[in-house]
Amino acid sequence: MTPVLNIRSANNERQLRRIKLSMIARNPNQPRKYFEPEAITQLADSIRQYGVLNPLTVRKTGEGFELIAGERRLRAARQAGLLEVPCIVMSATEEDSSALALVENLQRRDLDFFEEAWGFKKLIDTFGLTQEEAAKKVGKTQSAIANKLRLLKLSQKNIDLIRNGGLTERHARALLRIVDENKRMQATAYIIEHELNVSKTEQYIDKLLAEPVEDKSKNVLRLIKDVRFFLNTVDKAIDVMKESGVQAKVEREDKDDGVMLRILIPNCKKQGI
Questions:
Q1: Which of 66, 71, 104, 115 is catalytic?
Q2: pTM reported for the whole predicted model
């Protein structure tokens, strides 16, 4: 089988050696953002008892070494108080290091679907790759990459709600059909509250999208008609007062934010009332 990444180590071999933890820097392109503290503590307890059984993967940099794969083990080893850990040293570019970190997490199923999408986007944006090139790097199809990236069209607030509500990737894809952000947030909350599965979620969204959209232009037109009716009513009232001998008058001034009316009704004593 042809490897996804064509990476050569020094002397065409991967070097296994022990390296001080102080010399290993985290991978800035690590796609995984959340590491469960309890799981790290459990791994640290295991490392205290048995040591690091699976070597970390690193690459040489000017300042020391940069982690490629094994951040959970790195964190746990530090928590366990180790000074050095076994590592496989590879000769890899920053681009290949980023791709390897993503591949390792994908193989271990350590990422949720949003972290996968962010990982693909970071790989593409950082190294100027096309979706097809990124797909080859991580052993995926171009369409799979495109589908993941579509998830990032959701707002961060909506993403947080989907995650906290325990919804699946198929739920998220269904919600993408709703364009209006407020409606999408309301729909997400409804789906979580009523514990809708994917099938019922799609039916619910179909129903939402089938509802007639309120024509705001009609509301504006109705408002304009209401304003004209009010102004006509004022004019008629002034005419009635004049016919009754009350010399009332109205002054109208059009402003940018509306119409200003100034109505003057003479003092009753002056009118002999």
A1: 71
A2: 0.56
